[in-house]
Amino acid sequence: MAGQVGKMGRALIFPVIAILLAFAVGALVILASGNNVFAAYGALLSGGFGSLQSFGRTVVNATPLIFTGLAVAIPFRAGLFNIGGEGQFFIGAITAVAVGILLPGPGPLVIIAALVIAGLAGFAWGAIPGVLKIFGAHEVITTIMLNFIAINLTYWIAQGPLVGEGLVPGTDFVPETVRIAKLGMGLGGAHLGFVLGILAAVVAYLLIWRTTKGYEIRAVGLSPGAARYSGMSVAANGFLAIALGGMFAAFGGGLEGLGTFGKVSVPFITNLGFNGIGVALLGRNHPAGIVLGALFFGGLAAGAQQMQFATGVPLDLSDVLLAIVLLFVTATRLVEMLIGRRARALAAGTKLEGGLA
Amino acid sequence: MSPDEITALLASMVRNATPLAFAALGGLFSERSGVINIGLEGMMLMSAFGGAAGAHFSGSVWIGLLVALLVGLLLGLLHAAASITFEADQIISGTAINLLALGGTGFLMVTLFGAGGTSPRIDSFGPIAIPGLSSIPVIGPALFNQSILVYLLYVMVPLCWYLLFRTPFGLRLRAVGEVPEALDVAGVSVVRMRYLGVGLSGLFAGLGGAFLSMSLLSAFTEGMTNGRGFIALAALIFGRWNPIGAFGAALLFGAAQAFVFRGPQLAIPQEFIEMIPYLLVIIALVGFGGRAVAPAAVGKPYRKE
Asked: What value of ipTM does the predicted structure carry?
């Protein structure tokens, strides 16, 4: 038991140091913009974690980030960089909302159908860069291009075949029965999606660390040459990993579509895919870390609104802070210089093997 | 299409290609030296903002341009420090810079201009017709009635080719990206060459960003790069890590973007037309990128043995 705690503690050192350093830099930014650091950070923390209601907002923000974080982490384990979470999320959202609007039937069944079909759509969308990679197209660029294509496709569906009648551009609301139930307990808009998120993290963990396929995926990511020598297909495992990533992102989108919003409006919520990258890296590409990272960043986003309201510091600071955290998390030599050589061993899970080859 | 419409389309192609080409040249110097620069998008965005803000507060587009270049250089050096000195994963470092630029420009928009969205309008680099050349039928006005930044690009492309392939500096830079050990043994600082390469990429991204907010448009709008930094990388790959090739690829992708706004009206929805540039990039990479060979040492930090 002590060994486990020690292991987890060591795993947390890197992200925690990165967060502290980022907040230090953030404090300089706040000072430079003429604001009071304590007031700003105080509002930031209380806005995210200060009350049950704030925590509810944090949970609402964190829920989709768990999914988009997993969408990055699973392909990362196979050595691939999935930046397509944004587009995969959109595909999931519009698919789930479309099924919710078009499929008649009892609420719970429609919800399940919507999420399953959304997941399949995400799997397919994630499979595209997987296939393209086999033809030599690097997934970093193809996934980003597919983001733009997915967003355009989603907006076309939301304003074309599925357009609603309200004043806000986009689809109609899905029927009330197809909305995801709220958690209650004073947590405001937080819904069951959060529970499903934790479940998804558990499933992802089991998939990657407790199945043969997961072992292959990790082997291919850690050492493609050795894996190939043992008969594992780098291409096939990479393909599966990135398709699974797309599926998880799409689940997240579907849950937001049916839970938080109930429709796809134009414009729809953005940046969840990109912030998922930060969450995944902060969480060392491990499902447990991702849940924690999602809560951290969800709290940051919720708190940023409170910070802007109370002190006038623009809420974009939370994006800036996340970017700085990311830089520190991956710039391992910097932390090494700060806490000694043991840092290198702690840095597992923050680097991809291989480059653009 | 009428000759006038073709000219307008070609002119738009050149204008759209310019930021792509500048950024691609930036990516060229970085990758040739062995460092992947995914952060071109963020560098362009932040430079675009710097240019617009600099021009607005100083009243001079030239100061704006200087600010844009400085911002690009600084972000380039940040990426260099993170990936070279602190051995960050180069793709993650680049991604962090993109996120930093997105949040940072939003933050600065509110702090400096009071509100997000679009900055106040600035005087921009307007078109200057080159006498004689701009009178050539159809292509003349398209190629030679453009802003001074476009003419700078025309000069930069062959200049970069010469620099990279005909000078000792270029040879060393390329060697650092292929076999850094060889240069280390010969006494050349791998770290210094890579800082130069990545710093240059920041400068070029700065030129691309400046063009966006101070020539293509006359203001900064949040998110205005819209993926151009990544399209530029695709142009680089499609152009085989060669300035001439990258410029050609930039023209191709620029043509696709021009088509979105000035092409003949087709019977398909606007959203699908807007997908065309991104689809073209994917097709280009799949069709021809597979046989492209990146500099051998790209993507890996260099540690002295």
From this structure: 0.86
